[in-house]
Structure formats: structure tokens, C-alpha cells
Design goal:
globular; alpha/beta; two-stranded antiparallel ribbon; binds iron/sulfur cluster; 39% helix; single chain
Length: 173
Amino acid sequence: MRRILFENLARRPLTEAPPPKDDAALAELAASVDRAARRRLGRSLSIREVDAGSCNGCELEIHALNNAFYDLERFGLRFVASPRHADVLLVTGPVTRNMREALERTYNATPDPKWVVAVGDCARDGGIFAGSYAVAGGVSQVVPVDLHIGGCPPSPLQLLKGLLALLEQKPDR
Ligand code: SF4
């Protein structure tokens, strides 16, 4: 017990270094997404996340957008609990057969204009889960996809860049 105590006192902390107080790149990127959303929608962007069967690795990165490190809400971007309040569906994972209908219903419940962003390599074509008896396929095999953000998992900055590209490149509809 004493040995463990001394070891722990001598060991360096295992936690990551704190983020810089003001991450200029993140702030600029998030502000650009918010400006683009206001241009396109007249307000800030609302995002509904749908886990269609992921391993939760992509969720950890998506959740990170809301944590104290990234704190996206300070830029006006927010996650909403209902698809009826959403502009963007962020869909992760391969779509499992159990989640197929839930994803279709979520898509149908989201008002136009809406965008679907498939997040992660699994969302493209099933990724490492492709071919499983439990998997229906990639997101585009179930609902129309406007943008795919690759990675396993994509980082929060990649997610933000993807949202910005989506808002700036798609024509109005
Ligand atoms: S892309 Fe990677 S992190 Fe995301 S659900 Fe698939 S295996 Fe998990």
C-alpha cells in the first residue's frame, strides 16, 4: 500500500495537458460554420445525432464538440433532442437492421431543408462491420446522404470542417 502511494506521488499525471486558453483555429472554424448557417437558414445550426449502430468511437468525438474543451454552444451551434428541431442529422455507424426503421423515421420527422451527414468510415459502407448479418449497410443505403466525413473516428475539427463544407457548398433548396 505504501509503495503504491509513493509511486502515485512520484508519477506524472496521466491526464492530457489543458487546451490553450484561446484556440484561434477552432474559434475561427466554428464562427465560420455559424455565419454560413445564418446565411443559409437565418439562424444558427441545430444538430440531431443518430447512432445507427456504431461502436461509440464516433460518438465520443461528436460529444467532444459539446465538452468544456470545444464548447460549441458558445458559437451558437447546438445539439437538439428531437429531429423535429434539427437542420442536420449526424449519423454514425453502419446501419444495423435493428436501427434501420428508427433511422428512416428520424429522417422523415426532420423538417426540410435538412441535411444528412454520415460520420465515420462505418457510415460510408459498413466499415469493419460490413458483411455482418446484423448490418443493413452504409447510411446512404437507408436515407439520402449529403456529406460523408471519413475517419475512424473523425476528430471534432474534421467534423466542424465537414459541417462548414456542407453549408458552403450545397445549393439552397
Ligand atoms: S468509424 Fe470507427 S469509431 Fe466510428 S463507428 Fe466505425 S469503428 Fe467505431
